[in-house]
Write a structure and sequence with these properties.
Layout: H1 3-17, E1 24-29, H2 39-46, H3 49-52, E2 55-60, E3 79-82, H4 85-93, E4 98-105, E5 110-114, E6 131-134, H5 136-139, H6 142-150, E7 157-159, H7 165-169, E8 173-178, H8 182-190, E9 195-198, E10 208-214, H9 215-220, H10 222-241, H11 245-254, H12 260-273, H13 281-284, H14 291-303, H15 329-334
Parallel strand pairs: 1-2, 1-3, 6-7, 6-8
Antiparallel strand pairs: 3-10, 4-10, 5-8, 5-9
Helix pairs in contact: 2-10, 2-11
């Protein structure tokens, strides 16, 4: 009887003086300045989800003068957000030792936009436009797919320099755009709602906003990868369907050019267009991927002339061990997400 309080006191002292477990430091780099298309990651940071999963995450934004892509294979960052699967096909083709571990967007937001009332309400009519304002990277990638699959012609091409002026001045022109951004800018500057055609709705089947990491990280630290993927998925669920005020504030801090109104308008478009939560994510949860979808997109790109058959080992493009686990679907249901 005499020794029990002593043992209890010793136990309490041990517990109170035990060091807290260190959080794993993670640098997650994006491919552009903070915007609603990064909202789920900022949500996981703002609401403590990353920390809950034992991660001390720093989000390192990209931008027009910032290229974060080389930092991943160099080991200077742990995770990288890139655009669509074309980047990942190139990585495998060129022997870059990285792999996709999740795809946060089921649809690539790449779109073609047009003036209303000019006969472009149907996607098929876009190929008749006399002027198509397309940036160089688009001309050498998805424009090739548009030519082969939908009959677009190079004669219409004009360079797009990310200035809306030429498009606004020419009612017969069509222009590339990010479906959750440019339509907002057009409405603000041109005072009209443009016609928006999402390439994903017409067969451009790539995933987008994919998370990459190094092959050695998957092999040696699979628990770290799983925690980062799970926490990011929950961040996206809460950003889309919960209270995103704190996440928006963090993004505005990182990118003062952004406004609360623009972030909210962009998020509404993401939900309306099913950019994040549609298709495979409805069954497997946000971040879902499948081998069949990757093979389909690669076959389309081979047909478009971007790659040769068998040039890319598709088994090395992505690993599916961290997704398709219905993570966050219970939270989505509680928040009333559909």
């Amino acid at each position: 009887m005499i020794r029990r309080p002593t043992l209890l006191l010793a136990t309490l002292v041990t517990l109170s003086t035990a060091p807290a477990f260190a959080q794993d430091k993670v640098i997650f780099a994006t491919n552009w300045k903070a915007q609603a298309a990064h909202g789920g990651f900022y949500q996981a940071l703002a609401d403590g989800t990353y920390r809950k999963y034992g991660l001390d995450v720093t989000i390192q934004p990209g931008g027009p003068q910032v290229n974060n892509r080389p930092l991943l294979p160099a080991g200077r960052i742990q995770f990288l957000m890139t655009g669509n699967l074309l980047h990942n096909f190139d990585n495998v083709k060129n022997g870059v030792p990285t792999v996709v571990v999740a795809a946060m967007f089921q649809k690539d937001p790449q779109a073609l936009i047009a003036h209303p009332g000019q006969g472009y309400e149907k996607f098929e009519a876009l190929k008749t436009a006399p002027t198509a304002l397309i940036a160089k990277d688009g001309q050498f990638s998805w424009w090739q797919w548009l030519k082969v699959t939908h009959g677009f012609k190079d004669e219409a091409l004009k360079p797009y320099n990310y200035n809306l002026g030429p498009f606004l001045a020419n009612t017969k022109a069509i222009q590339q755009g990010y479906s959750v951004a440019e339509p907002i800018y057009v409405e603000n500057q041109g005072k009209f709602k443009p016609v928006v055609h999402l390439l994903a709705d017409h067969g451009f089947s790539t995933y987008s906003t994919v998370i990459e990491t190094r092959l050695d990280t998957v092999k040696n630290q699979p628990d770290l990868v799983q925690r980062f993927v799970d926490a990011s998925i929950l961040g996206w669920v809460n950003y889309l369907y919960g209270n995103r005020t704190a996440a928006n504030a963090l993004m505005i801090k990182d990118n003062p050019e952004m406004s609360e109104a623009e972030l909210e308008a962009s998020t509404a478009l993401m939900k309306q267009q099913g950019i994040v939560d549609s298709g495979e994510s409805l069954a497997g949860g946000i971040g879902a991927m499948s081998e069949g979808r990757i093979r389909d997109f690669y076959a389309q790109m081979v047909k478009a002339g971007l790659y040769k058959p068998g040039e890319v080992d598709l088994s090395r493009v992505a690993t599916f061990q961290f997704v398709n686990k219905k993570v966050g679907m219970d939270v989505k249901a509680k928040l009333g997400g559909k």
